[in-house]
Amino acid sequence: MNGSIRLVFFVLLLAVNSVALAQNSKSKLETQKKKEQKKISESEKILKEVEGKESVSIGRLNALNQQIKDRENLMKTLNDEVDFLSEELKKQENVISDLEKDLEDILKEYGEMLYLAQKANNGFQRILLIFSSSNFREFFLRMKYLQQYAEARNKQIVVIKETRKELLGQKQIFELQKAEKEIALRSKLAEQKQLETLKDKQASLLASLSKQKKSLRRDIEKYKREVKKLDQLIAKVVKKEIALAMAKKKKDEEAKAKANIKNAKASVKTPSASISSGASFGKYKKKIPWPVGYGFVSRKFGKIEHPVLKGISIQNQGVDIQTKKGEKARAVYDGVVKSIAQVPGAMNNVVIVQHGQYFTVYAKLKSVTVKNGDKIAKGQEVGVVYTDKSGRTELQFQLWHKQQNLNPEYWLTKK
C-alpha cells in the first residue's frame, strides 16, 4: 500500500517538473518567434515601399531577399515549436498512462483491503480476534492494528481521489497541447505558402534584372567612382584629425617640460582635439546602437558579390542599411562633427563624427541636421536618409579606428 502511494506521488512530482521545464522552453520559443515576426514586419514594410515603384531594382531584390531570409528563420522556429509540442505530447501520454496504471493498482489494492475489512468487521470474528489475545499487550496491539487498518483505508480513498483529479488535469493539459500543435502546424503551412510566393517573385525579379545587365554594369562603375570619392574624403578628414591630435599632444608635452610638471597625468586635455579622448568607445563592441531605428543590412562589409552580375564584386568599406522612407540617421555615440560634405551621386550628403580615436561615417543622406564642429550626443539626429527613384532608402554607415576601417556589424547591437 505505502509503495503504491509513494509511486503515485513520484509520478505526480515528475509531471510537475516536466510542466515547469516545458513552460521555460515554450517561453523561449515564443520570445524567438516574436523577435522574428518583428523583423518580418519591418522588412515587409520596406518591401512594400519599393514594390510601390514600377521600376525593377536592386533595392527591391534586397528587400525581397531579406523578407525571404526573415521568413525562413521564422520557419525554423515554427519547426522547432512543432517538434517541441510533439515531444511534449509524447511525454504527456506517458504521464497519463502511468497515472492510469497507478490508479488501477490502487483500486485493486483498495478492493483487497475492503474485502479483508468486511471479513474483519464481522462481529463474531472481530470479537474472536481481540479476545483470543494471550495477554493485555497483544490485546492492545490487535486493537491498534484494526484502528490503523481503518485509517489506511481512509488514506487510500484520499489517494484515489487525488489521483483521479490529477489524471483529469493531465488529460486537459494533453488536449490543450494538441490544440497548440494544430495551431502551430497551420501557422507553419501558411508560412510555407508565403515563402513559396516570395521565392516565385524572387525568381521573376532576377530574370527581369538579368535583362538589364548593361545598365547594371554602368550603375556599378558609377557607384565605384562615388565610393572612391567618399574614401578619399574620409581619409583626408581622418588624416587631418590625427595630425592635429599629434600636434596638440606634442605641444602639451613641450609645455609640460617647460613648466617642469612632475605629474604628467594631472594635465588637462581637450576631449575634442586629443586622439586619446573617447577611448571608452572601444569598450562598446557589439553594444553600440544602430544608426537607424528600422531596417536591415542590405550590403555587408568587405568584398561583396553582385546579386545579379556574375564575377562582379564591390568593396564595401562599411555596411549599407536599407530602411523606410523618411528615416532619420542618428549618432551611435557621443562625439564631435568633423566634416559635412557632398559626394555627388548615390552618396549625397555625408557626415563624419569623431569619437576620440574612432570615427563614424553617415552617407547617403537627403539632408543634414548638424553643423561642422557640433558636439553631439548618442542618439542625436545627424540627418534624414535619402530615397532614390526606385524607392530604395539606404544609409551607408562606416566605422574607422584611426586610419583603419572596421566591420560595423561586429560593433552594432544584435537585432
Helix and strand topology:
Elements: H1 2-51, H2 58-120, H3 123-131, H4 136-210, H5 213-259, E1 296-299, E2 302-305, E3 313-316, E4 319-323, E5 328-330, E6 335-343, E7 348-355, E8 358-368, E9 375-376, E10 381-385, E11 393-401, E12 404-406
Antiparallel strand pairs: 1-4, 2-3, 4-11, 5-10, 6-7, 6-9, 7-8, 8-10, 8-11, 11-12
Helix pairs in contact: 1-2, 1-4, 2-4
Model description:
- The protein is α+β, with helices and mostly antiparallel strands and 415 residues long.
- The chain has two domains: 2-210, no CATH class; 227-261 and 271-410, Glucose Permease (Domain IIA), CATH 2.70.70.
- 59% of the residues lie in helices and 16% in strands.
- It is built from five helices and twelve strands.
- It has helices at residues 2-51, 58-120, 123-131, 136-210, 213-259, and strands at residues 296-299, 302-305, 313-316, 319-323, 328-330, 335-343, 348-355, 358-368, 375-376, 381-385, 393-401, 404-406.
- The strands form two sheets. Strands 1, 4, 5, 6, 7, 8, 9, 10, 11 and 12 form a ten-stranded antiparallel beta sheet that branches. A two-stranded antiparallel sheet has the order 2-3.
- The longest helix is centred in the middle third of the chain and has 75 residues, at 136-210.
- The protein is elongated and about 115 Å long.
- Residues 19-109, 206-267 form a coiled coil.
- Pfam families: Peptidase_M23.
- InterPro entries: Cell_wall_metabolism_enzyme, Dup_hybrid_motif, M23ase_b-sheet_dom.
